[in-house]
Amino acid sequence: MLERDSAENRQNHLLGSSTVLRRDDERMNTSTTKSAISNRLDVQELEMLLEAYFVQIDGTLNKLSTLREYVDDTEDYVNILLDDKQN
């Protein structure tokens, strides 16, 4: 009788352990899923930030290009005036 109780206890202990292991696996899977979703959201947020920076940089580049053309035009105008004074 004692051996039977001991065997049942071991079996219950083993079954209980497998239940605990399954719960840990479920938690790990849930954690992994949450982590994957979080990573996906982080990547999307990063892409949106990079796109916003790109738009700002592109706008700044356009302003600098316009300013450069203005400086070149002013330089040409000054050179024309100087040539006129020399003649």
TrEMBL record:
Alphabetized InterPro entries for the sequence: MRS2-like
Family designation: Belongs to the CorA metal ion transporter (MIT) (TC 1.A.35.5) family.
Organism: Escallonia rubra
Name of protein: Uncharacterized protein
GO molecular function: magnesium ion transmembrane transporter activity
One Pfam family named in its UniProt record: MRS2-like
TM ranges: none
Region (Disordered): 1-33
Biased composition (Basic and acidic residues): 1-11
